[in-house]
């Protein structure tokens, strides 16, 4: 769950289908949604891929202008490969019991370009 995740995988890429430039795992012990999101913004994260997420954290991520793919489940390497190829939603990486087989994908505004920059995957 995003809210309590303490290990964050930051993936840097130049877009779908391009090689991963860098993988970095960081520890994050922020207590408040704003603190966790501020850390991601400071790292220039543009998209968050995670499992479950509370509405409070979801709103904080979206208000920060990041794209959000929530309720995603699967092996991190498999999810990363599917995300990078743009096929994650078609391949059904939804959490068990998720009412929508394609999970939730959300964005706020038009400033976010999915697939470019630094991205975050919960571990």
CATH class identity? Alpha Beta
> Quick one: CATH superfamily?
Dinitrogenase iron-molybdenum cofactor biosynthesis domain
Number of strands: 6
- Poorly predicted parts: 108-119
Main sheet overview:
6 strands, mixed
Here the CATH topology equals: Nucleotidyltransferase, domain 5
- Strand fraction equals 25-35%
Q: Looking at the structure, what is the overall shape?
A: globular
Distance between the termini: 9 Å
What is the count of distinct domains? 1
Proportion of helical residues: 10-25%
Please tell me the CATH architecture by its name.
2-Layer Sandwich
Strand order of the largest sheet: 2-1-6-3-4-5
Radius of gyration using CA atoms only: 13 Å
Mean pLDDT: 77
H/E topology pattern: EEHEHEHEE
Number of helices: 3
Q: In terms of structural class, how would the helical and strand content be classed? A: alpha/beta
């Amino acid at each position: 769950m995003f809210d309590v995740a303490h290990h964050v995988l930051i993936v840097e890429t130049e877009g779908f289908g391009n090689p991963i430039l860098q993988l970095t795992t960081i520890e994050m012990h922020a207590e408040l949604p704003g603190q966790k999101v501020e850390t991601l913004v400071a790292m220039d994260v543009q998209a968050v891929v995670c499992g479950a997420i509370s509405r409070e954290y979801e709103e904080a991520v979206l208000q920060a202008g990041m794209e959000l793919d929530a309720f995603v489940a699967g092996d991190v390497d498999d999810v990363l490969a599917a995300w990078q190829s743009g096929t994650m939603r078609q391949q059904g990486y939804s959490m068990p019991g998720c009412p929508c087989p394609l999970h939730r994908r959300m964005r706020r505004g038009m400033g976010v370009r999915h697939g470019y920059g630094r991205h975050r995957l919960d571990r």
